[in-house]
Amino acid sequence: MTGSLILWIIIGLVALGIDIATSAFLFVWFTLGAIAAGVAQIFGYSFIVQLIIFIIVSGLLVILVYPIVKKSIKNSVKPTLTREKTYIGRVVVVDEDIIEKRLIKVDGVYWSVVEKGEVLEKGDKAEIVGIEGNKIIIKKI
């Protein structure tokens, strides 16, 4: 193995390692560019030609393929709901009349309440139908 082939192997492994560590799918294209440059070295091309092949292959892949892969991954991964968003659809029992105190306790946290529909009294069951800023929207069931 010559020095330039070792260089391309190191560049490819480092780029791949960074990509694995960051999960960005950005540096893998430099790994492929390093492989292409390594192949050029095996066929006996000069280091300048290898460098040009590395830059062109890596650049084209970053410009053309990376956006497609990024969009594909973004569309396939479902976003993680915030804790508050998981409240929607839950049924809660009202601790106090909502008229007196416009707060409700959900999982140990007091929330301001916006009620849709009837007035809620102590002991009533309500469904959380939405969240508006820092207020929970509830509806009597």
Q: What features would you highlight for this structure?
A:
NfeD-like_C; alpha+beta; transmembrane; OB fold (Dihydrolipoamide Acetyltransferase, E2P); NfeD-like C-terminal domain-containing protein; Membrane_assoc_protease; membrane
Overall description:
By secondary structure, the protein is of the alpha+beta class. The chain folds into two domains: about 5-75, no CATH class; about 85-140, Beta Barrel (OB fold (Dihydrolipoamide Acetyltransferase, E2P)). It contains three helices and five strands, in the order αααβββββ. It has helices at about 5-20, 30-40, 45-75; strands at about 90-95, 105, 110-115, 125-130, 135-140. A five-stranded mixed beta sheet has the order 1-4-5-3-2, with no helix packed on it. β2 (about 105) and β3 form a beta hairpin. It is rod-shaped and about 85 Å long. The model has no long low-confidence stretch (mean pLDDT about 90).
Report a brief summary of the structure:
With 141 residues, the protein is an alpha+beta fold.
